Amino acid sequence: MSLQANFGERTINELQLIFRHRQINLEPGFQRNSVWSELDRRRLIHSVLSNFPVPCIFLYRRNDRGRIVYDVIDGKQRLETILMFTGTGRFRADRFEVKLDLDKGPEWVGWPELRKRHAERHQFESYKIQTVEVSGDFSEIVQLFVRLNATGKRLTSSEKRHAKFYKSPFLRDAERLVGKFQRYLLQQKILTQAQIDRMKGTELFAELLMSIHHGGPINKKTSLDRAIGNEGINGNTLARLTREFVATLNLLKRMFPDIRPTRFHNTVEFYSLFMLIWQMNKEKFVLQDKARNRVAFSLLKKLSKGVDDLRLQLRKAAIPKNVQPIYRDYLLTVQGDTDSAATRERRVGILNGLLRSLYERKDEKRIFSAEQRRIIWNGEEQHNCPKCRKRLAWGDFTVDHIVAYVNGGKTSLRNAQLMCKSCNSKKGRR
User: Fold this and answer.
1) Fewer CB near the last or first residue (10 Å), C or N of the chain?
2) Measured distance CA(253)–CA(259) in Å, rounded
3) Local confidence band at 232 (pLDDT 50, 70, 90 cut-offs)
4) Can you tell me whether residue 401 is helix, strand or coil?
5) pLDDT given at position 163
6) What are the helix (H) ranges across 50-110?
7) CA atoms of 417 and 283, how far apart (whole Å)
8) Which of 369, 360, 382 lies closest to 416 in space, CA to CA?
9) How far, in Å, CA of 139 to CA of 401, rounded?
10) What average pLDDT score do residues 202-228 get?
11) 377: exposed, middle or buried (Cβ count in 10 Å: 0-12, 13-18, 19+)
12) Distance between CA atoms of 248 and 212, rounded to whole angstroms?
């Protein structure tokens, strides 16, 4: 490696001072989110106040327009904990207390109380933490970051991917979308807050974006790194993928408002349901009929229960009787290699066979032809808008789908009426 390392030490007071002067960057692009629990943080403060040694901190030293800045490579959680406990800078609202054995026995103490005790305050602020200041080729920093985080709270595959490709527009878009839909992910129990913090949401959304680009399910293990690092996806393509992703997820939310009682809140099966909705929407199926969606959801719940019952019987070593083939076939796709392209395609195929027949396709032709316009105009004795009663002129009218096209209305004479432009634009999907 072409990195140079300088070994030293800094007191907590020095680290606080450097942070206040905005010379410590806790969140360089390759860093992960905060993953320590409150118990982890209390243990660290207790170790400091007990004068126990704590692991050293690795800092990447760089020059930012004539000013030295330190990117935290390893030790983010430790530095954050110290800054939270003392309420330093932007961590003022994150203060917490620790249980210490003081004069009158064990008691919970925060920094405002502790700083009034001269001996304890001096011990805390003068506590020295070993530091390693690294400088040199930045391209090797990510490799060092991953290697250093191979112990302790180990990096998940999602965090390693984030560290490696943190500059990727593809990954940044996935992260932004997680922020946009975070409330939905939590409400539907698709992911927990801890999983989102550890980049699982970013990984899931990146998979879905790449699957849209691929045109169908991808193999998670072999495709994702290559996909995220793919510089061949230009800005226009990424913008299109993002639009299709948002449209599909909003459609899924409207079709099935509460998937928590089913298996489809699991990320593996949520992926498959999402891809089915995306495929059917691309094929111009009408997916916004509430009555049909209620039937579809009842079928999903029935499938979910059937698969759960079968799995429970097998775990009890019971011999299943009169099992519907669809339950058996689906169960095979959620056991073992659940994320291969072939397994994902089989799972989407089963869902497709279950739901597709419920829905109709939109008419291939959306715009009424010139001939149809003449027939409709000449077939009406009174050329008035049916909404506002405005008198229509030959050069100033529209032909409206009585049953909206987006709701499956056909572009046919039987589903057509004259209408003024204003009323037609206001009508929308009604």
Assistant:
1) C
2) 9
3) low
4) strand
5) 46
6) 76-86
7) 27
8) 369
9) 59
10) 80
11) middle
12) 10
